[in-house]
Amino acid sequence: MDEEPLKHYQKRLQQLRDKAEADFAQAPALGSISAPQAVGLLTHELGVYQIELEMQNEELRLAQVALENSRDRYVDLYEFAPVGYLSITNTGLIHEVNLKAVTMLGFNRKNLIQRRFAQFIADDDKDRWYQLLQRYKRGDSEHSYSLDLQLIRSDKSTFFAHINCLQIKSTNNQLILRVAITNISQLKASSSELELLVRARTLELTDANLRLKQEIEDRKRIEAELEKSRIEFRLLVETMSEGLMVCDNKCIVTYINDRFCEMLKRPREEIVGHAAIEFIDETSQAAWSLQIANLKAGKVTSDEVKLKGPKGNGIWAKVSPSPLPDLHGGTVGNFSVFTDIDEHILAEYALRVSKNQLRKLSEQVMSAQEKERQRVSSELHDGIGQTLSAVKFCVEAGIKSICEHPTEESFRHLENVIPKIQHAIEEVRRISMALRPSMLDDIGVLATLTWFCRESSVVYKNISIQLQLDIKEEDIPVRIKVVIFRIVQEAFNNAVKHSSAERINIILKLVGSTIVLRIEDNGVGFDAKCVGSHGGVVSSGLGLASMRERAELASGIYSIDSTKGAGTKIQATWHRMS
After folding, report:
1. Predicted confidence pLDDT, tens digits, the chain (578 residues)
2. Residue limits of the PAS domain (predicted)?
């Protein structure tokens, strides 16, 4: 029943009573007025109270009507609700039931009142219902609770119901359990079908998920292998000793490796995006264009081209462009591997120059040998030959004189032969010393150099010859003693013949483990680049070439520094461990 109108009526009565008590408290005391006045006042007050009672009675009647209307509405709502309603006592007995609940259970209302609700619950769900009742009796549960139960109809058929329970207290302070029943059989059936569909779909999704997971794992494995291959390929390409250039079908560079950048001495940004022919030297562009034309015709050729670096610097490379296929059997461009053969080309050039030098040097050596033979022949003929002829004439004249007139004067005539023979001996010694001083083998190169400078000072009195020796004889290997003397001899002869020098310094010293020989003069000098250099240019004179040849054959390093008007410096060095 609806209790709101009753509460409102009780509240209104309390307000009227409070007002009457307040008015009575403000009324004058009866002892202060006369009896007639008091009677009149009481009569007036009784009239007021009568009116108030009539007003209260009218309000009670109106409240009763409102209460009955509210109760009728409640009954209609309760009876014709779309869900079943039951009121159950704390002992589990049905106290009230609406029409929907009667219809759902299939019993008459009188057959449901005071019957246990558990009788209409399937056996499998009764324990859950009893546990709910026990919690309500102990008062340790929430005020509301819901659960799904399987209920039994009067014809023993069952249906699934959703139960909403609310615990309240009745007017007599008894615990009442209000129960709302909703038939969810169709929902359960749909839920079961949906569950089956969900399970089937779940199985399909699980299977698909497993396949997808396997595909993902396979894809990740393939991607990892591809990434590994890509890294290995890129590492191989970037660390290969050859230069690699990739071009599109228009021969525009799309990729190069680090080695190609090193070969061209250009950064990657200056090469990628440009035509490949821009980096081929003009002397090799025709050969490159022919290779590309052959490649487009399906023929791969190899050739040597010169790459063009910055400021015209170039490097020779061997290259053979190859097609770069696509997935459809066509080509997306070409790639070229450039093998650095610059050193090979330079070596071939140096070999040709060396052969030319050797040929010319051989010719000069043969010419020098002939000149030396001619000089020795001339000295033998003009010097020793004439002296021996004079000796022969004197001996013959002396013998004839002794034979004809064997006197003391005839024997004294033979004594004139002795000076001539002595002169011949000195001439032979001079020629021998010029060819190879014997003291070089007897007392060493230091003493020989000292003798050479002393004898040269006698011959060339107008030249100051200074000899500086800062090395011991035992510090000089035997195999380079002759080399040192011949270089000094040749450099000295060149200086006195061509430089017009006034001073010649000869220095031989030991610096650490290096033997240093230096010959300096203050003569007119010459252009060393034109006459000869250590870079492979052929010398115009045999002397400079022979000095270089002697030094380098003895594992030494030869250099010459000369400028017109600034004298000449010739230096040769040998490492003692070489």
Report:
1. 445 655 665 676 677 667 766 665 665 555 555 667 767 777 877 877 777 787 778 878 887 877 777 777 777 787 888 889 898 888 889 988 988 889 999 988 888 899 999 999 999 999 988 888 888 777 655 567 888 999 999 899 999 999 998 888 776 777 788 899 999 888 888 888 888 888 888 899 899 989 999 999 999 999 888 888 888 878 887 778 888 899 998 999 999 888 888 888 889 898 999 999 988 988 888 999 999 999 888 888 888 888 887 776 778 888 989 998 887 888 889 999 998 887 777 777 778 887 887 777 667 666 666 676 666 666 666 666 677 777 777 777 777 777 877 777 766 666 777 777 776 776 666 666 666 666 777 788 898 889 888 888 887 888 899 999 999 988 888 888 888 988 998 888 888 888 888 899 999 999 988 999 999 998 888 876 665 444 333 344 456 777 888 888 888 999 998 888 888 999 999 987 65
2. 70-140, 229-277
Tally of CB atoms within 10 A around 20: 15
DSSP letter assigned to residue 280: B
Among 188, 223, 248, which residue terminates a domain? 188
Tell whether 209 is covered by a domain: no
Note whether 476 and 574 are same-domain residues.
Answer: yes
Backbone angles phi, psi at 244, to 5 degrees: -120, 130
Q: Are residues 427 and 501 in the same domain?
A: no
Q: Are residues 481 and 572 in the same domain?
A: yes
Residue 218 lies in a domain: no
CB atoms within 10 A of CB 128: 13
CA dist 371 and 377 (Å) reads: 10
* Parent domain of 47: 4-78
CA distance 358 to 352: 10
CA distance 199 to 73: 47
The widest CA-to-CA distance across the chain, in whole angstroms, is 232
Q: Is the domain of 281 the same as that of 329?
A: yes
Strands (E), 281-374: 303-308, 314-319, 322-325, 331-340
Contact 497/526 with Cβ under 8 angstroms? Answer: no
